[in-house]
Amino acid sequence: MDCDKCGSSAVMHAAYSGLHMCESCFTRSVEKRVRRRVREDGLVPDDATPEEPVTWLIGLSGGKDSVVLTQILHETFAQDPRIELVALTIHEGIAGYRDESVDACVELVEELDIRHEVVGYAEEFGLEMDDVAADDPMNMAPCAYCGVFRRDLLAKYADEYEADLLLTGHNLDDEAQTAMMNFLEGDVAQVAKHFDASLGPLDERSEQDTFVPRAKPLRDVPEKEVALYAHLRDLPAHITECPHSSEAFRGEIQQLLLKLEEDHPGTRHSILAGYEELASIVSDRYGDGTADLGECEECGAATTREQCRKCQLVEAITS
Question: Beta strand 115-120 with 83-91: parallel, antiparallel or unpaired?
Answer without folding.
Answer: parallel
